[in-house]
């Protein structure tokens, strides 16, 4: 069965090095917390808020060990007034037998504000 695994992270500025580093951090954490084998990943969609345009976050995913052939695509998020700025969102489609309620969605940096209801206890304590 394919499940969607969500994640999001913010950056402090539209700087290529930071975008790539933070995207790598997010995807690595998503994979670790959900015990994801890259061969089980059907695809990854990455969106950024429109204030991020200096780098393709997908490039960071392709540099991860064994992720070279995972299909990854970038797009821009809707530009809604008042939305969280400088945000990178990831939707990973993974073949897994894990129940929907057991999936660990990962929100880092200021992105914890997006879904406080899904934060793990360790994320709440680290805030």
UniProtKB/TrEMBL annotation:
Its EC number is 5.4.99.5. Gene3D superfamilies: RutC-like (3.30.1330.40). It is an enzyme of class 5 (isomerase). It comes from the Bacteria. GO terms for molecular function: chorismate mutase activity. One of its GO terms (biological process) is chorismate metabolic process. InterPro entries: Chorismate_mutase_AroH (IPR008243), RutC-like_sf (IPR035959). Prephenate binds at residues 6, 89, 107. It catalyses: chorismate = prephenate. It holds the Pfam family CM_1. Keywords: Amino-acid biosynthesis, Aromatic amino acid biosynthesis, Isomerase. PANTHER family: CHORISMATE MUTASE, CHORISMATE MUTASE AROH. NCBIfam families: CM_mono_aroH (TIGR01796). This is chorismate mutase. The gene is aroH.
């Amino acid at each position: 069965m394919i499940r969607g695994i969500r994640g999001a992270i913010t950056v402090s500025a539209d700087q290529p090095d930071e975008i790539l580093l933070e995207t790598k951090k997010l995807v690595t954490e998503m994979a670790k917390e959900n015990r994801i084998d890259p061969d089980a990943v059907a695809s990854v969609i990455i969106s950024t808020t429109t204030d991020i345009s200096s780098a393709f976050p997908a490039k960071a995913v392709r540099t991860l060990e064994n992720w070279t052939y995972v299909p990854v695509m970038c797009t821009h998020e809707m530009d809604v007034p008042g939305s969280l700025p400088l945000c990178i969102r990831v939707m990973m489609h993974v073949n897994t037998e894990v129940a929907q309620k057991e999936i660990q969605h990962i929100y880092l940096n200021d992105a914890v504000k997006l879904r406080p209801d899904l934060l793990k206890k360790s994320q709440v304590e680290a805030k």
